[in-house]
Amino acid sequence: MNVDEDRIRAQFEALEDKLPELWRQISGGTSWEHTSVVVPSISFDQTELTKIQGVPFYEERLLFTLIRLTNPAARLVYVTSHPIHPEIVDYYLQLLYGVPSGHARRRLQMFSVFDGSPEALTDKILARPRLVQRIRHAIGDTSRAYLTCFNSTDRERRLAVELGIPLNGVHPDRLSYGTKSGARGVFKESAVPAPRGIENIHSEDELLQGLEDLWSEPSPPRAAVVKLNEGFAGQGNALFQFPSTRESDESGRRSQLRQALTEMKWSAEDENLKKFLSQLSRMGGVVEEFVSGHSTKSPSVQMRITPTGEPTLVSTHEQVLGGPTGQVYVGCRFPADQSYRTTLQDYGWRVAKCLSQYGVISRFGLDFMVISDESGNFDIHAIEINLRMGGTTHPYMALQFLTGGELDAESGLHLSARGEPKFYFSTDNLKSPHYRGLLPDDLMDILIANRLQFRPSTETGVVFHMIGGLSQYGKLGVTCIGNSPEEADALYDRCVAVLDRETGARKDSGGEAFGWVDAPFGGME
Fold this sequence. Notes:
The protein has about 525 residues and is α+β, with helices and mostly antiparallel strands. The chain has 3 domains: about 5-170, 3-Layer(aba) Sandwich (Rossmann fold); about 195-290; about 295-505, D-amino Acid Aminotransferase, Chain A, domain 1 (2-Layer Sandwich). The chain contains 17 helices and 19 strands. It has helices at about 5-15, 20-25, 45-50, 85-95, 100-105, 120-125, 130-140, 155-165, 180-190, 205-215, 250-260, 275-285, 340-355, 395-405, 440-450, 470-475, 485-505; strands at about 35-40, 75-80, 110, 145-150, 195-200, 225-230, 235-240, 265, 285-290, 295-305, 310-320, 330-335, 360-370, 380-385, 405-410, 415, 420-430, 460-465, 475-480. The strands form 3 sheets. Strands 10, 11, 12, 13, 14, 15, 16, 17, 18 and 19 form a 10-stranded antiparallel sheet that branches. A 5-stranded antiparallel sheet has the order 5-9-6-7-8, with helices on both faces. A hairpin with an 8-residue loop joins strand 6 and strand 7 (about 235-240). The longest helix has 19 residues, at about 485-505. The radius of gyration is 23 Å and the shape is globular. The chain starts with a helix and ends in a 22-residue tail after the last helix. Residues about 510-525 have low confidence and may be disordered.
């Protein structure tokens, strides 16, 4: 560690010491003037992120943090790689209940680095000292400000120091608890059930040994999942199929496993064994049994450990998975199935208490697999911890943004400000080649003409995100809020039908919407 790194760490720790009191002041129920700086940088391994189409526009997902402007004493600074179209900003501001959009607009400052290169946004900001200076000037009183990021790394630590404000997120030195390997250790300590497996694998030989160990179990699995420690949205996973027969000698079994490695199925379309093993040697990973049964679901629970160290329950979801191996996150439904929702919440509390003891402060999500037999009996397996915001963070922010209210911890339902339960379906992957070329203005015209909007009178409707990626990629996100799960799904179906009709994606004869064949819903990737 060099002198500059020592300085940054020392200054960062001093800033973090201020965060608990800052949190108490902001959440104290009074209009306490403060500034929130939002840098929605997805600071992951860039090789992994290139597997996701349109990833720079994922920075728009945190525009739901504009809900903070409902507090008249709050100011917000938002930084992105690409400039955000004014129509998109207006779209979110007009959703703020009881706050004139002009009043909120005066308390919002937007910055862009005008750089669409495949680098983390935080790196782009740090490479532009004049921009850092302008952001610092926009903050004003740094003693009343904090930094929000999608995830935390050494990059975000440096940015917090450069801006002179604390980072409201996981401490970079505690990120290991959120890797695939670290999560397995936390599950063991928290007495949360997880699939059989081996962690901290860094080479092909270690991977083969891990597979051999699983294959040698008294009841060996038929398949295994190999995961990169820092894979994103399931794109760093591979499905391994064990041979149907097993050689009696060790060298023969090793040859069988080595051959089976070449036949793994990849979650990312452009992945191959050479690239995967290179990533494995650099970041490490795990191999664990692929759990399956008569019925398989993939729910998740979202928790938060506040800067004062208090665990809180945020939400539960049913994840919708797709892709070649069925392990790529494409959407979610809120809330999780009521038959096991309270069990998920209990496991979430256990993990949150464990992480809190290690000084973790963060939003985080726990992913599970629920395996049911023909009689409806089920087993729950925890499979990973995401120490960051995730694909379920922004849709729940949208629900809070639009309906107010809060989660009822006993039932796991979100009750609006009127006390009514709300449900939604959300995806970042509403996509069709026919949507390409649509500008934000065009989308707004379509929404207005077809009344495809959120309706405050019923607290139901559709809200869009990632609108900036529509023209180039034909891809955007949507959250459909209903008074029942069925109404939320129906809103999504209508949304797809409207966009397909307006763009010519639906055939005159009433054919299906153009979508990806492996997708569980029309128009989804």
